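User: quick one, fold this
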Amino acid sequence: MQSSNGRDRGAGDGSERSAENQQAHGAPSHDVTYEDPWYDALASGWGEVDGTGAPAPKVPPARGEQGGAAVRARDVYVEVQRSSAFQEVRATYRRFVVPGVAAFLVWYMAYLVTATTAPGIMARSVTGAVNVGMLAGLGQFLTTFLLTWAYARHARLRRDRAALELRWDTQELTRGVRGDAS
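Assistant:
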């Protein structure tokens, strides 16, 4: 089977044999062209020739190379970062995360220090084969899940709506700077 630009694309039956190889082995030859409008479009801009034989157009410049519009969009983000709404979202985040992480790290370090320095305490039997060390280890898992649940609940109830409104406002401001209609 041939691609739209004349390069061999295989027979379509899973094998990678060319048409000449199939004829040599007795397989029927199907000279079918494969029309894929995106095949040539994906590689344009890298020095290849387009369908007319002329060099393909150059790749457009990256967004950061546009000059004035990029600088103004950057100013919008800096302005939003300095706004009181953004500072409130960040402060709400920090008021939950910093104490939560500190408490969990203290609890984890206490577990490790106790397990290494006082193995007798950790080996005390609570019930049957269950000892203090096993309960403390399971408590680590429990506190991880509880902290994750509390974080998701706190984010949903206290930060998500304000953060989405801030995001919407930022997108509207940058859209206005770029002059886009969409």
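User: anything notable?
Assistant: Helices lie at 19-24, 37-41, 68-82, 84-117, 119-122, 132-178.
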